[in-house]
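User: My instructor asked us to take a sequence, write out its structure as tokens, and then describe one feature of it. I'm not sure where to start. Here is the sequence I was given:
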Amino acid sequence: MNKFLITLIFCIFGGVAQAQSALPQGHINSMACLENMGDNTTWNQCLALIFAPCLGDEVGSEAHVSCLELQRVEWTGSMRLLQSDVTDAITLKSAEDLTKILSGWINYVSQKCQAGEDSTDNPSVAAKQLGCQITELAGLTGEYAACLEGRSTAEYCVVKN
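Assistant: Let's start with the prediction itself. The structure tokens for your sequence are:
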């Protein structure tokens, strides 16, 4: 039994290390910041890390929006990578629960980040919406990392035996 547990723990944490090594270092640093917020870091410090690649652009400019669009793509990739690992690691019931949670999360983010504003021709509104989406993606990605590392208290995060 002990050998099985040791093997299981190695597989889980080894998988986490492998998945996280595929993540950009900036994403890992941002997630660590978010996790330690209130203890060692502040929201503004975490935002600076999350948006560091775009800090040189004038806020709301076309260059800024383009940078944010790229960041959203990259955060979506990190989130999907860890989501896949989480789905493989958790029980079938937990995966079903996660699917339900995610459908609600997608609607929540859409409503929160749209906030009644149309970004069709307004780069400032587009930047605001992209920033909102990116911070939500960073939070979800961090939650997936916590699940894989055994630190999550979320009900969906029940690892297979």
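For the description part of your assignment, you could build on this observation: Helices lie at 2-21, 25-35, 43-50, 62-89, 92-114, 123-148. Try explaining in your own words what that tells you about the chain.
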